Amino acid sequence: MLAACGLGVDGIDPKHLTQTLNRWTELGLFQSEDKLVSLRDPYRSILGKNPDIAESRLPKVLRMIALAPENNIRFFEAEENRAADLNRGLSWILAQDVYTIDTSSHGTIDALENSQVADKAKRMLQNDTRWNGLRTWMVYLGFARSGSSVTIDPTQALRESLDEVFGAEQTLAAPLFVDRIAEVIPVLDGGLYRRQIEDLLKGSTWHRPPASTLSTALSRAIRRLIHEGVIATEQLSDTEAGVTLVGAEQRPWLRMTHVRWIANRKAK
């Protein structure tokens, strides 16, 4: 396994490979028995035996594991916090205005975080190593797009979670749709991890979206899925509870009371 991941290749630190294997064993992806390492179920069954299919499914599996409650119990503790470091960083950056945030360097990210988080012990991206780690993982897990600077965009994570969000239903009331997203992806609007981070942020430098208004990050993801024909939004009543998507400069995009999944549900 380590050889397949680059053991023996120039520039690959074998210590990093071992540390990564140990971390994902701790998080529950692997199990070790009689010196043999194997994938745990249900992840082994989800990934399947075809290497190409398994590789395409791996980001969703790792996202499920990283977001799992049992891997985020010690959410604000510095040691033995499992995936909490990652989810604190994700929650913070997904709460920002995706149209104004400067992700070109750790310096700009550090300055923004310092202006919002008064408690130094709870700052998430205090050095370049942490920022580089978050930047890499948020792209791989479907919360951003890579480029000269990272573009915050959770479209892929949301797209791959629609099975869990909709369940057996085809149409959801918009507030329920957002609540279901928060349950499945708790670093997004209303999610448990997101709420804990938002409670840290100072109002003078970070503005909480108004009631029934989504963040620019989640608004972007929903808007892109609408454009792709994956989902459709409906405004069935002016009086019924709804949700508003916003874009650049916090301009309202649209208000929706219901969301319908129109993509082929059997497609994987």
Order of strands across the widest beta sheet? 5-9-6
Number of domains: 3
How much of the sequence lies in strands comes to 5-15%
Q: In angstroms, what separates the terminal alpha carbons?
A: 26 Å
What is the helical fraction, as a range of percent? 40-55%
Radius of gyration: 19 Å
Strand elements, count: 9
Structural class: alpha+beta
How many helical stretches? 11
- Give the biggest beta sheet: 3 strands, antiparallel
What number is the mean pLDDT? 91
> Stretches where pLDDT falls below 50 for ≥5 residues?
none
Detailed description of the structure:
There is one protein chain. The chain is globular and about 60 Å long. It has 268 residues and is α+β, with helices and mostly antiparallel strands. The strands form four sheets. It has a three-stranded antiparallel β-sheet. The protein folds into three domains: 14-70, no CATH class; 76-153; 158-261, no CATH class. It has eleven helices and nine strands. 42% of the residues lie in helices and 12% in strands.
